[in-house]
Predict the 3D structure of the following.
Amino acid sequence: MLRADRFFRYNVSLILELGSISKVQGRPSHFCQSFGNLIKNAVEAMYDREKRSLRVVSSEKDGWITILIVDTGCGISGADMARIFAPYFSTKPLVAKGDEPVGIGLGLTSAQKMIEAHGGAIEIESAPGPGTTVAVRLPVRRAVRNENST
């Protein structure tokens, strides 16, 4: 998936630290879309940076799986951090002026909803400059909540 991303071609260094983890019960398409959105954001945050490093780390402890996505991108300001999960909020333009990434502001919103539907959570630590760390936490072997139930 990463190698197919058009921004990955900007010589992003990929570091995988994948520990042994249990399976999580859920919809594979939700996980694929959620992690795809998170990784896409990380790669796009580095498009104009001199250092481009993407680290993905997996671990398991006390019945919880944690996946960290760490980038050396531009980071997120405090004002933007308060709104990053809001639908249609994006720091990216809708129309590119060149090779810059574009966005409509639904990637993090949908990722958060899908991860939460599986009993998990997304936490983000960031500041302008040093990059961003996204932590996705998921319970081991939890069934997905039926969104149509009352």
Observations:
- The two ends are 36 Å apart (CA to CA).
